[in-house]
Amino acid sequence: MSKTFFVTGTDTEVGKTAVSCAILEAAAAAGLNTAAVKPVAAGCDDQGQNEDALALMASMTAQLPYAQVNPVALAPAIAPHIAVAQVGRTMKASQLAGFCRGVMTGPHDLVLIEGAGGWRVPLSPRETLADLARELQVGVILVVGMRLGCINHALLTAEAVLGDGLPLAGWVANQPGERMTCHEENLDTLMHLLPAPFLGEVAHISPWSPVEAGQSLDIQAIIT
Predict the structure, then answer these.
(1) Which of 8, 55, 94, 192 is least enclosed by beta carbons within 10 angstroms?
(2) Cβ pair 216, 202 in contact under 8 A
């Protein structure tokens, strides 16, 4: 089975997809066959496709159909459990895990499962995305959005991941916008306090280049 990691973030809009694409590009540059899954995505275009899922498809080496990369595509750009309720559907962690395992058992060296929002985003009144990661029993990669409040958000998320019995395989500092005040001091604090390997920092690049972003990462801790 492929080496698989669940990618979560300290919040929504912190750059999970950007970092996931950077990791996929770095892994491809190292000669690995890669794939990714966005099990649930809220916010789709007129063709029923989500831009994050499409970005993952562009950066992974595997040629998979869209429905396998993003099996649950919800049109409203709102919290997944609310979007599901609005369209009259239900969503279970075990069902999403089955979709993910379909890719994990393929001929890939590395598979990334990208969550939606943060660690405790609900799937239903009884389950969250954390239950999906627990169902899969995979290591977690934490994307820290480098902005005001990131230290508290990162430490609480790491505590939750470890408390749920999953290993924190690594973390990435991502700059989703303008560089924050005291950036280096915040980064240094996170490097000392987060109990996981630091995989690198992704800067705010314009125009965006996942290949260039991947070159700034050291992913040896997750591929060896």
Answers:
(1) 192
(2) yes
Q: What is the torsional sign of CA 127, 7, 147, 150? A: positive
Of residues 7, 20, 13, the one with CA closest to residue 55 = 20
- 38 assigned to active site: yes
Distance of alpha carbon 132 from alpha carbon 39, whole angstroms: 10
Question: DSSP state, 123?
Answer: S
CA atoms of 28 and 34, how far apart (whole Å): 7
Q: Which of 3, 16, 38, 92 is catalytic?
A: 38
Residue-wise pLDDT tens digits, 57-99: 999 999 999 999 999 999 888 888 998 888 888 899 999 999 9
C-alpha 139: how far from its chain's center? Answer: 12
Q: What letter represents residue 85's amino acid?
A: A
Distance CA 142, CA 140 (A): 6
In a 3-state reduction of DSSP, which class is residue 168?
strand
This model's pTM is above 0.85: yes
